[in-house]
Specification:
mainly alpha, about 65% helix
């Protein structure tokens, strides 16, 4: 795999983890934090869209 793609995927995975954690920012108590398939699903959708937008704007780097 080309080095720039490796860096791109590392950046996407890191952003995805941070976005998932930030979804719990508005919880009132730590006991309210629990795994949610809906939040995971939304995180995956947001990550996919973010990756496509980033590839579009940085297409000169990946062609």
């Amino acid at each position: 795999m080309h080095s720039s793609y490796k860096t791109f995927f590392q950046m996407i995975i890191t952003s995805s983890v941070f976005m998932y954690i930030l979804m719990y920012l508005h919880t009132y108590e730590l006991g309210h934090v629990f795994f949610s398939e809906t939040r995971l699903y939304m995180n995956l959708i947001m990550t996919a869209v973010m990756a496509l937008v980033m590839l579009w704007f940085m297409r000169h780097m990946y062609t």
